[in-house]
Amino acid sequence: MTYFHQLWEPYLAPEDVARGQLEIDQVRRIGGSERERGFIDALNMIYAKTDSVPHPKRANAYTLAMGNWPSAIPTMSSARSFTR
């Protein structure tokens, strides 16, 4: 998440896109709990298709992903704080 700066531009510097995508790919190979996979899948919305989808649309997809899946896991209400 440290490569993704939500409050100032550039939100995601070009040199950080490849690094972030690589780390997401690596952690997906490792696997993880449902909770961890949910965070990873949501964050992937920021790094996927950076060349063709504008940042505001990717950020909205991230927000929706983070806002939707925690409701399925009762102990995940605190995860919503990452989208507000």
Which helices and strands, and how do they pair?
Layout: H1 14-30, H2 34-47, H3 55-68
Task: State the helicity in percent bands.
Answer: 40-55%
The helix/strand class is: mainly alpha
Alpha plus pi helix count = 3
In whole angstroms, the N-to-C terminal distance is 15 Å
Question: What average pLDDT do the residues reach?
Answer: 80
Percent of residues in β-strands: under 5%
Shape: globular
The counted number of beta strands is 0
Unreliable stretches: none
Instruction: Please trace the helix and strand order, writing H or E for each element.
Output: HHH
Tell me the radius of gyration. 13 Å
Which sheet architecture does the biggest sheet show? none
